[in-house]
Write a structure and sequence with these properties.
mainly alpha
Length: 541
């Protein structure tokens, strides 16, 4: 039997280790201008060695030029004095007071008033809007809490995305937790009719129904069919409240001198009622035919006329399939270009946007502390470490600028046609090709263009916009995928709605333009752009 005993083994292996310096270099390269500014501000707070160059402090060159101006002023003072009255510009003097038009403030004047953005209110979200309505209702505490639980599980479109089992389990856990904390009765939720306590399942059903009666109509639905049906039911209920269950004015038409107007009003009300009934029938039973835009089959399946089918479809188009989006709007994201592509003469140049970026330097005070003889050893070690970290950060910032400039110079050389003519002249370009040209790894180029934007004559575009694969044509000319998709979309937009183009026909038309694409590729591009198929796009009488 072998005994366990310790042994020493030597093993040679290679592995890649990211040093803290390399990690910082990679992270700095991936930052855009605004993120870099925030990172520099944070580093200046943590590292006392880093200082921002104050533009108000004069440099040596500025002091020298100021002394030269003083000397020239002294020489001019020695010359014969001029008549001050002739130096006054009376035209601008009176223009200042007589011009009734608007005059802009000088650029050097500072406005101390607070920004208007400080007075903007926070936008109301869907959850806030629904919670406000629940607070205005007189509900039992258990039902109010369950309704708030349902509101918290709505997605951004207002749909109840979670399944009933998931909601039930989560609500049971919430009720048990409230009971254990003493915030809910131990015998369970109370019933609305006083016949006994509701079960958790009944409480959840009541809460969902309560949320579905809130504004906007359609929230709390599980799918598109329920969402549209809830909106139609809400309008029907409002219609009955205004005009009653039915309108019968025929008895008053003959006796009333305005009988013709009453008859016309009755006909319009009944037509509106009929349209809502047809819309409810289409949504409940024939939504799949509505998605296919087949009015003829829809009218036959619903046993209605073509006029009623068109009116019902028109009413459904007035509904909102995403009722929660009006409150859950995406906030505007501020974009500031990192580079500028400017044409000077016949050549395109690249310049970094370094406005508002702090200019860093090393503190002279801490330099003197390193040289001083009476500085303690621990203090010197700390200052040395801070100097090492500051120099490393400044070097990485300079390296980031160099990498971005070299990458953008290659982009400008390869995409001059796009800068001059627009998107149609965009050429395919791969990250690997740019990396080989500037002599770096493709991941470096990928980080250099990530989340960064360029100001061009064609607008502010993301740097990744310039990189796309291409499709070879018969003449060897590559076409980027972006341009291919735009061509497919343009052909579909210009087609006859009664006879839409098939994927094979689109492929043939592109082949006539020198672009070889198969039917499957056209179908893939069409699906990526969320364009319906030929059968779904066909408009029938």
């Amino acid at each position: 039997m072998a005994l366990l005993q310790p042994r020493l083994n030597v093993k040679v292996a290679q592995r890649q280790v990211l040093t803290p310096s390399l990690v910082q270099m990679v992270s700095v390269l991936a930052l855009n201008k605004m993120e870099l500014k925030e990172m520099i501000d944070a580093e200046m707070v943590e590292n006392p060695v880093l200082e921002e160059i104050d533009e108000s402090v004069p440099t040596v060159d500025e002091i020298t030029s100021r002394e030269e101006r003083l000397e020239r002023g002294a020489e001019e003072a020695a010359a014969p004095p001029k008549d001050v009255f002739n130096e006054i510009d009376f035209g601008s003097y009176f223009q200042e007071y007589l011009d009734p038009g608007y005059r802009t403030q000088p650029e050097y004047e500072e406005n101390d008033r607070p920004s208007f953005e400080n007075f903007l209110s926070q936008p109301t979200t869907l959850s806030d809007h629904l919670a406000w309505q629940l607070g205005a209702l007189n509900l039992e505490p258990e039902l109010h809490a369950a309704a708030e639980f349902v509101v918290g599980n709505l997605d951004e479109n207002g749909y109840l995305a979670a399944s009933e089992d998931e909601l039930l389990e989560a609500l049971k856990a919430a009720v048990q937790g409230a009971t254990a904390n003493g915030t809910a009765p131990e015998n369970g939720p109370s019933s609305a009719n006083g016949s006994g306590p509701d079960t958790v399942e009944q409480l959840l059903i009541r809460a969902i129904e309560q949320v579905r009666h809130l504004d906007p109509a359609g929230v709390g639905a599980r799918d598109l069919r329920e969402c549209l049906a809830l909106q139609i039911a809400a309008q029907q209920e409002e219609f009955v409240t205004l005009y009653g269950p039915s309108v019968n004015l025929s008895a008053e038409v003959e006796e009333n001198p305005h009988g013709s107007f009453l008859a016309e009003a009755e006909a319009r009300i009944e037509d509106r009622r009929r349209i809502m009934e047809v819309a409810a029938q289409i949504v409940d039973r024939h939504l799949h035919l509505l998605q296919k835009r087949d009015l003829k089959d829809l009218a036959q399946a619903a046993h209605i006329s073509m006029e009623d089918a068109q009116a019902g479809v028109g009413f459904i188009r007035t509904l909102d399939p995403r009722p929660g989006r009006m409150y859950n709007r995406e906030e505007t994201r501020l974009i500031e270009p990192d580079v500028f592509f400017v044409k000077r003469g016949d050549e395109w140049t690249v310049s970094m946007n370094e406005e508002d970026l702090p200019s860093l330097r090393l503190s002279q005070r801490y330099r003197r502390m390193l040289i001083a003889q009476n500085t303690e050893k621990e203090v010197k070690e700390y200052v040395k470490e801070r100097f090492r970290s500051a120099l490393q950060l400044m070097r990485h910032i300079a390296q980031r600028k160099s990498t971005i400039l070299r990458t953008c110079e290659v982009i400008v050389r390869r995409q001059q046609d796009f800068l001059d003519r627009g998107v149609e002249a965009l050429r395919p370009m791969m990250i690997k090709e740019v990396a080989e040209e500037i002599g770096v790894h493709p991941s470096t180029v990928s980080r250099a263009v990530a989340n960064k934007y360029a100001h061009t004559p064609q607008g502010v575009v993301e740097l990744r916009f310039f990189f796309s694969e291409g499709s070879n044509g018969p003449e060897g000319a590559d076409t980027p995928l972006l341009v291919l998709k735009r061509k497919v979309r343009k052909l579909i937009e210009e087609e006859d709605a009664r006879h839409p183009l098939t994927d094979d026909q689109i492929a043939e038309m592109l082949q006539q333009q020198g672009i070889r694409l198969t039917r499957r590729t056209v179908a893939k591009y069409r699906e990526d752009m969320k364009i319906p198929s030929t059968h779904q796009r066909r408009k029938r009488d």
